[in-house]
Design brief:
One of its GO terms (biological process) is cell division. It comes from Snuella sedimenti. The protein has 2 helices and 2 strands, in the order E-E-H-H.
């Protein structure tokens, strides 16, 4: 079995105790730091003081980044598929000739 770790992450002045796989620790700590940086940016840029609003804005920002990456990947896959189909058609044309 994989090793479980008990860690505490601080986000928006709250401590969250977690039991995680050892392999998850680095990613979770980096994510918590990124959230803290984003919280500070939103508080400074928009003068938002309610932590609930700031956390909602952070969640929206992260979710939109994930969705945009998914959309971008789908567009790239579609483009690659079109190029492969065109190449296949070209090869078929030359093989039949």
């Amino acid at each position: 079995m994989s090793e479980k770790l008990k860690i505490k992450l601080s986000i928006a002045n709250r401590v969250y105790p977690l039991t995680i796989e050892a392999s998850q620790e680095e990613g979770l700590r980096k994510a918590a730091k990124q959230i803290e940086v984003m919280i500070k940016q939103f508080e400074q840029s928009y003068s938002v003081r309610d932590k609930q609003d700031v956390l909602a804005m952070c969640a929206l920002q992260f979710a939109s980044q994930v969705e945009q990456k998914s959309i971008d990947k789908a567009n790239v896959n579609e483009h690659v598929e079109e190029k492969l189909n065109a190449l296949n058609d070209l090869l078929q044309t030359h093989l039949v000739s």
